Predict the structure.
Amino acid sequence: MRLSEERIAVLAREIADRLLDDELVDLEIDERDFRFLIEGLITRDLQIEDEIDEEATAFILRTRPHLEEGSTEWVVELDRKKEDLANARGYTMF
């Protein structure tokens, strides 16, 4: 995962604070629980990206073994496959 648990917690706190400060949400739960929910969403999102990246890499290694990892063609094929896998899951990659 690209972010540490500590960084995810900081981001979740900042997101929750901003949503609450701008009165964009009306909580019926404790703010701490709200932050915890946001942390879970961030973590799950990052896990999905990791899964897609692993699947795409395995696919390229299996179907295009002649490509040199890290080459321009490798990166193009990897990005294309990641986009295909994300679309199949209904997931938007950033």
Observations:
- The first helix runs from residue 5 to 21.
- The chain has one domain: 5-89.
- The chain has a mean pLDDT of 94.
- Residues 5-89 form one domain.
